Amino acid sequence: MAHMIFTERERAYLESQSLGRMGTVDAKGRPQVRPLGFQLNDDDTIDIGGPQLSKSQKWRNLERNPEVSFVVDDMTPDEPGAVKPGWGRGVEIRGTAELLTDHEPPAYGGAWFSNEVIRIHPRLVHSWHLDPDQLNRRAQVSA
Q1: In terms of residue numbers, what domain contains 126?
Q2: Domain annotation covers residue 130
Q3: CATH number, domain at 122?
Q4: Could you tell me the pTM of the whole model?
Q5: Which contacts (CB < 8 Å, 24+ apart) does range 41-45 have?
Q6: In the 8-state DSSP scheme, what is residue 29?
Q7: What is the pLDDT of residue 3?
Q8: Would residue 1 count as lying in a domain?
């Protein structure tokens, strides 16, 4: 099995969430950020699907520049045992996007997703307020 990118707490958090925000850069250097559903894969890559995905601005942006940022975050539950109750928590992933065609889309999209996937290969992971023993974690991923 390949080296795992995410800690157990990061994986559990990502698997519990359904919405993230992906940042790309257009041809003129302007940022674009879009909220998107996602799927965490067993190899710690992240898949994003959508209807007619290859016709989207985000796909065109990634064709020109595959560098991507993806953030999943929310507010920490205000409950006993939570890390920093009432504070923000999350995972930021920076990496490279792979554009896959003729590929089964993530199951969360149902039949209306096209057979195309944006697959994010993480290079840097930054998480916060997920682990009481390590409030902030920043890890560079080796290939």
Answers
A1: 8-140
A2: yes
A3: 2.30.110.10
A4: 0.92
A5: 41/119, 43/2, 44/2, 44/4, 44/5, 44/6, 44/11, 44/122, 45/119, 45/120, 45/121, 45/122
A6: S
A7: 54
A8: no
Phi then psi for 116, rounded to 5 degrees? -140, 145
Does residue 15 contact residue 40 with C-beta atoms inside 8 Å? Answer: yes
Residue whose token pair is 């992240």 = 46
**Is 58 in contact with 11 (CB distance < 8 Å)?**
no
The number of distinct structural domains making up the chain is: 1
Q: What is the CA radius of gyration of the chain?
A: 16
86: DSSP letter: T
pLDDT at 46: 97
Average pLDDT, 10 consecutive residues per value, the chain (143 residues): 80 96 96 96 95 95 98 90 88 98 85 93 96 93 70
Q: Would strands 67-75 and 31-36 be described as parallel, antiparallel, or unpaired?
A: unpaired
The three state secondary structure string of 43-84 is: CCCEEECCCCHHHCHHHHHHHHCCEEEEEEEEECCCCCCCCC
Task: Flag whether 78 is in a domain.
Answer: yes
